[in-house]
Amino acid sequence: MKDFKAVIFDLDGVITDTARYHYLAWKRLAEAEGVHFDEAFNEHLKGIDRMGSLELILASSPRSYTDAQKLALATAKNEHYKELIATMTPADLLPGAVDALDACRAAGLKIGLASVSRNAFTVLDSLGITGKFDYVVDAGTIARGKPDPEIFLKAAHELGVPPADCFGVEDAVAGVASIKAAGMYAIGVGDPRVLAQADVVIPDLAAFALD
Ligand code: G6P
Ligand code: MG
After folding, report:
1. Which of 38, 96, 103, 207 has the fewest CB atoms found within 10 Å of its own CB?
2. Ligand 2 midpoint to CA 10 (Å)
């Protein structure tokens, strides 16, 4: 592996299993709106921001919605999601997550976080790992979500490292696409058949090794 200077992590589904909570919250909303929702469909929502995810779900609804109704549904989903994450503690860190962050730090890499979740700061605090990052992108400042490269480019810029000297770590198809569009090396976390665009795929961060 070349001499990278920074690593930029995704949060949901990589460092902690909040991807499960997003799934449960969207599933309840979809079913209340009479839309079929399953794990396969959810795969397309990973890494997609809140309103973008809602649009994808409502696309298969027989009803039509005003902007105000959409905003109310997105807010309700977020309230449910916040209930689900309210009890998170450092015990909710996925296996290998802290070791991976510490290994990157020990190797002298700058460490960034690029999540489009507006709950990312809360989740990092609950996990007790906010201090392990040199820079966390504020999702509220990002105009275009993943798969657009904006969020990874912003992280690299703020870390002061050219994109070509960064690698990204992602569990979502849209997230891997975002990393590649930013001109970075992509480590996928999950299923290699799903994350086909990644340069390398590991099953979880317990398998993360800098060599
Ligand atoms: C992450 C998750 C998505 C979620 C998005 C927005 O990218 O992978 O499933 O929709 O964040 O999260 P938020 O907490 O802002 O609704
Ligand atoms: Mg993710």
Report:
1. 38
2. 6
Q: Is 130 in the pocket of ligand 1 (CB under 6 A)?
A: no
1, pLDDT greater than 60: no
Q: Which helix (H) or strand (E) is 8 found in, with range?
A: strand 6-9
Q: What is the mean pLDDT of residues 88-104?
A: 98
Helices 150-159 and 173-181, packing angle to 10 deg:
60
Q: Which residues surround ligand 2, an ion (CB under 5 A)?
A: 10, 12-13, 171-172
Cβ atoms of 47 and 22 within 8 Å: the answer is: no
Instruction: Read off the pTM.
Output: 0.95
The verdict on the CB of residue 50 being under 6 Å from ligand 1 is yes
Distance 1 CA to ligand 1 centre (A): 30
Task: Domains for the chain: give ranges and CATH numbers.
Answer: 6-16+90-207 (3.40.50.1000), 19-85 (1.10.150.240)
For the segment 87-99, the average pLDDT, to the nearest whole number, is 97
- CA dist 63 and 83 (Å) reads 28
